[in-house]
Specification:
heterodimer; A: 542 residues; mainly alpha; 29 helices; B: 130 residues; alpha+beta; six-stranded mixed β-sheet; globular
Chain lengths: 542, 130
């Protein structure tokens, strides 16, 4: 054995994956590697983002073990190969290796912990194929085998898989408990780096699917520490890295979120990371949209779409911001109705409601708000609850029910504050301001807007900042007798806008605008829109 | 080779033990089953029911910290009796014990009523498990 092998093993133990791979590859040219080193080579290649090299090494290790009759170890190598293939979405080849390894164990009638690893891989294949029940049974059996054989890695991975399946089967509480149990075991035991990375990603994805921000934040922070300690680490299942950016985005640290996306790009291995790259492009697009960088936003949404990530609701919201209400409504309706299940629709609900309210379809918005309320009630978590209350407040405002809208929106604001979600809190304050104006409380509206504007300015959310400042302007020029909202409508009437156009501008229903127009004419004792226009000109409101 | 259905029952039993699948085990064993452990082994003695069986075998996994590998060498069965030979490898505190063990089964209408474990190489086993 040369110095090269010694350096390679040292690099491997220091988790310098690329260095370990390079040293082992170089050593292999001098003499064939032993099985231990072939396994190190395969693992290091996987963690350095070299998928083909990793697979070749696992196959070599498998064949070497099978050749000398060490069936259990040959099966273990086949498992890691299948694990990589299945997680990369190659269900056919991954499944093929599971079957091949299973035959080896069955032919020799061997009972060892490897039987559990194969149960795990078969469950992974079932779950990825959409057969969640079979996946759940398999993960459960694998976890039991892991416990019996005192294998914390298998037990923890299988518990996490089982938890994910239970969440998909709507047994959310049990599922989340198993995710926690599995993650605690992963952190407490001597577990391989491949297993740790996979466990973090699975748990974070599960929490994110559930809108469980706090739990996702906890595991994301732990993942960050782990990833940061290994500069040469590449992750195939890099979706979890994108979730780090999403956490920063939610908390209003948009610059850090943008930096995090760039870091995620660097860490994502190709071509397996395509789905994750799509998620990263979507998030970048959304940041550009919120900052009024429309062309950059459009380009990122286009890229997200090419990478397999549906660019909604971001793209539709971009269209809305550009004043293309009908196009926005058509896109978001398509996405919303294709979503298939309440949980998937919940992810689109806020954008959907905002856009269809702008298009005047209050009934559809009400229906979406109610479904989101059911999802939030089932989950009982802060983020979906705040989201539901905000959406409900918007619908109530559009239905001309400002008092209950205020109540819902204030609860939403408290929820956003609790979550540290600065942007969402500021957006909610804008809606609260509108509700205050609708009940004639201009002071209240001013205070809310004054609180929201600095947040939008800090984030460079230029459209929101402009809208908030416009709201302040309306308040300062209000003629006696009219509410601020009515005066806003009057300004638009004076510009010759139709009720529909006004509704689009103010993001309320056409019916609401018609009601405001009626009140304006009554309060000002005017006979027609033409007379209202003249009034506006006379009072310098145009 | 023997393809009596009770061979498959024995194989299913082994899988269910490994997976802690008590539901399957309760169908495979009669309610009054007895497991007899014979030889210098940690679970020597008689054990009643599925719980008794699992607890007895569990001691092996506890003492070895799960370092257990079993390979079935052959299995025969008829309507009333079955016999299974296995090669077992155990690791414990840096030591390894390899032995060929035997299981004998007595069936009652396709369910296992009685089961014996007989350790081969008793001297090695005695020092390993001591």
């Amino acid at each position: 054995m040369g110095d090269g092998i010694g350096r390679a093993r040292d690099a491997f133990n220091r988790q310098a994956w690329r260095r370990a791979y390079d040293e082992l590859s170089a050593a292999a040219t001098a003499e064939p590697l032993e099985v231990d080193d072939l396994e190190r080579l395969a693992s290091a290649a996987y963690l350095a983002g070299l998928s083909d090299e990793s697979r070749s090494a696992w196959i070599s290790a498998h064949e070497k073990c099978a050749h000398v009759g060490d069936v259990a170890r040959a099966v273990r190598c086949a498992f890691w190969l299948a694990f990589a293939l299945l997680n990369a979405g190659d269900l056919a080849r991954g499944g093929g290796w599971v079957d091949r390894a299973q035959r080896l164990l069955d032919d020799r009638k061997i009972d060892s912990v490897e039987r559990g690893y194969l149960r795990y891989a078969a469950a992974l294949r079932a779950a990825f194929s959409g057969d969640v029940r079979t996946g759940h049974e398999g993960f459960h059996a694998a976890a039991e085998i892991g416990v019996l054989f005192h294998d914390p890695e298998l037990a923890a991975l299988a518990r996490i898989g089982e938890g994910r399946c239970l969440i998909w089967l709507d047994r959310v509480d049990e599922g989340v408990a198993l995710l926690d149990e599995g993650m605690v075991a992963i952190e407490a035991n001597d577990v391989s780096a491949i297993a740790i990375g996979d466990a973090y990603c699975t748990a974070i994805e599960g929490c994110t699917e559930l809108f469980d921000v706090r739990r996702a934040h906890t595991w994301t922070a732990a993942l960050s520490r782990w990833v940061d300690s290994q500069p040469e680490l590449m992750l195939y299942r890099g979706q979890c890295l994108i979730h780090r950016a999403e956490m920063l985005y939610l908390r209003g640290d948009w610059d850090a979120a943008a930096d995090q996306i760039e870091e995620a790009y660097r860490r994502l291995a190709d071509p397996v990371g395509q789905r994750s790259r799509g998620a990263a492009a979507y998030l970048k697009g959304d940041l550009h949209r919120l900052r009024g960088q429309d062309r950059a936003a459009e380009a990122e949404f286009q890229l997200a779409s090419e990478l397999g990530r549906d660019p909604q609701p971001g793209l539709a919201l971009l269209r809305l911001a550009m004043g293309k209400v009908e196009a926005a409504a058509a896109s978001i309706r398509r996405a919303y109705h294709e979503a298939g299940d309440p949980m998937s629709r919940a992810r689109l609900a806020a954008g959907y409601v905002e856009i269809i309210l702008a298009s005047g379809d209050v009934a559809a918005a009400r229906s979406a708000a109610e479904e989101l309320g059911t999802v939030a009630g089932t989950l009982g978590l802060p983020l979906p609850t705040a989201l539901h209350l905000q959406v409900l407040g918007a619908v109530l405002l559009a239905e001309d029910q400002p008092e209950p809208a205020l109540s819902a929106l204030r609860q939403a604001l408290a929820g956003w504050h609790e979550l540290g979600a600065a942007y969402d809190a500021a957006r909610t304050r804008m809606q609260i301001a509108a509700a205050c104006r609708a009940v004639g409380d201009d002071d209240g509206a001013e205070m809310e807007l004054a609180g929201a504007i600095p947040v939008f300015e800090r984030l460079s959310a230029v459209r929101d900042a402009d809208a908030a400042r416009a709201g302040q302007h309306v308040a300062t020029s209000r003629p006696s007798g009219l509410t601020s909202r009515e005066e806003e409508v009057l300004v638009h009437i004076a510009k010759g806008l139709t009720n529909r156009q006004i509704a689009e501008r103010l993001v309320v229903s056409e019916k609401t605008v018609a009601t405001h127009v009626g009140h304006i004419l009554t309060k000002l004792e005017l006979p027609s829109r033409a007379a209202a226009t003249a009034y506006a000109y006379e009072h310098g409101l145009q | 080779m023997n393809s009596h259905p009770n061979v498959a029952v024995i194989d299913r039993m082994t899988q269910a033990i490994v997976e802690n699948d008590r539901e399957t085990l309760s169908r495979i064993f009669t309610d009054d089953m007895i497991f007899h452990g014979r030889g210098p082994i940690p679970f020597a003695g008689d054990h009643h029911g599925v719980d008794g069986l699992l607890a007895a075998l569990g001691t092996v996994f506890e003492l070895t910290d799960g370092d257990v590998k079993l390979e079935q060498l052959s299995c025969l069965a008829d309507d009333e009796w079955g016999a299974e030979w296995e090669h077992a490898v155990f690791g414990r505190q840096g030591r390894t014990l390899e032995m060929n063990d035997s299981f004998v089964y007595r069936f009652d209408n396709g369910r296992i009523r009685e089961m014996w474990f007989i350790a081969a190489g008793p001297a090695d086993a005695a020092s390993f498990w001591a």
